[in-house]
Amino acid sequence: MFQECFRHSTRSVWAYAYDMQTIHLRVRTKRDDVEEVTVIAGDKYDWDRFNEERPLTKIAADRFFDYWEAAVKPKFSRYAYIFRLRQGEETVYLTEDGVSVDRPQPAAGYFDFPYIHEIDLFAAPEWAKSAVFYQIMPDRFASGDAALNPEGALEWGEAPTADSCFGGDLKGILDHLDHIAELGATAIYLTPVFQAPSSHKYDTIDYRRVDEHFGDKNALKQLVDACHARGIRVVLDAVFNHTSERFLPFQDVLKHGEQSKYANWFHVRSFPAEVKDGIATYDTFGFNGQMPKLNTANPETKQYLLDVAEYWIRETDIDGWRLDVADEIDHHFWRSFRQTVKAVKPDAYIVGEVWNDAGPWLLGDQFDSVMNYPFAGKTLAFFTGEGQDGRAFAEAVNGLLMRYAQPTNEVVFNLLSSHDTPRVLTMAGGDKRKLKLAVVFLLTYIGTPCIFYGDEIGMQGGNDPECRGCMVWDEERQDRELFDFYKLLIGLRKASPALRSGRFRFLRAESGDARIVYERLGEAEHFTVWMNPTGEQTVLEHPMETNDWRDALTGEPAPVSDGVQRVELEPYGYRILRREL
């Protein structure tokens, strides 16, 4: 065995409390190198009376490693343990002190999980585990009150530019809640609604004022109330990393320089605060001098923003915050942010914008979730490309799953497109069959899925600003067949607990073959999903022990013969099979 590949730690994703009764333990080994992993555990204060051995299950594999996991339930909320690893006749023990060929006496040198504290649990809102989000840019969704339109607003449906406005508002969203409810979405994520000079509103002027072109606080409250009446949650976008240059405290800095009482609200490297040769003398979002970066470590700035987060929950009863450019803000701020938000609404959902591995923000003390752009990238590359490799895709997905603990994976914010990326149908080259495969994966995968407005009726668009086109409301120009497809898959997910919280595992993913099979396994139902991301008709086979499978969408039987299930798939086709347990 390649002992240098062994990995376990008593921290983070390797050993964590799933709930008050259960600890999850993970071990990493070299791929296809270890036959069996067993945890040997007991109570460090009375080992002789309270000890056990429990096998670990191989739950995932990436390019180089296998990952093993066990869910254990210590009798007294504490656990001392080591692992026994075996390959053929070779057996070794993995302890906190290293690797040994002899089993050490308990419990010196053993790994130790001292106690399960409820306050330390990763506690995301339960409702988020079952939610299907729908992302809306208010200016581009619908116009409900033309009197609110900004001067120079373009005709609805014209090609968008970086600076164009179209007059979408909160009343327009309210008027079209039937569309969102019919689709089956149970939550809405709104990009910023607060006063700002741009159409996208990521350059805030006043954090306590709804932009006058969208409506007012009462309009927002009316929208939230109407959503809640339909069982739809509402999450707003918070831009706490930076502001507009027209934000009054920054205007004061421009006017008074170092003497401004707001001088420490920003990261000014040298005064006066100005832009020279395209580079500002103060920190900004990117190199945009019109978006000065806030100093969230400054106590006054910090309290101001925390008050804003609390204010909108109290005033309008929103259900959470999506946090823009979250990885460029200090962790101390986010810990205080979580405490503030959860104090006023314990089941508020906190989603950070982090485009890479977000582990440091997902330890239970900051965010509930992050926008899972790595998922989008790997999923779209696989389903919209040609000649893809099923094993490589499975390895990439498993790598993402092993980044985070199970409670995080259950609520991570999965998406295929957004206001910052090309639309999914455009990524698929306009081929709806490829789009559908990606959407099936999104809606049968673990986590919280999100649909970008208009994707469900076939809108296309490249990178910003093309992806931010006006919603198409003329049904003659909508792809209603695609809408019905989204509606069907969302309905299946909402009706099936295993698709929301069951175990995810690849059953078939081979080198040089794009065809894959994976499963979602819950307490009362079992799903398998069969996919053919190729242009050829095919028959997939996989061993099955039972013959009680049915097509989850049609109800037709899916027979098993001689212990093998054979599924015929059209080019770029899929089938979702289900059995009751």
Automatic annotation (TrEMBL):
Pfam families: Alpha-amylase, Alpha-amylase_N, Malt_amylase_C. Residues 135-493 form the Glycosyl hydrolase family 13 catalytic domain. The lineage of its organism: Bacteria, Bacillati, Bacillota, Bacilli, Bacillales. GO terms for biological process: carbohydrate metabolic process. One of its GO terms (molecular function) is hydrolase activity, hydrolyzing O-glycosyl compounds. SUPFAM superfamilies: (Trans)glycosidases, Glycosyl hydrolase domain. The keyword Phosphoprotein does not apply. Belongs to the glycosyl hydrolase 13 family. Keywords: Glycosidase, Hydrolase. It comes from Paenibacillus lycopersici. This is Alpha-glycosidase.
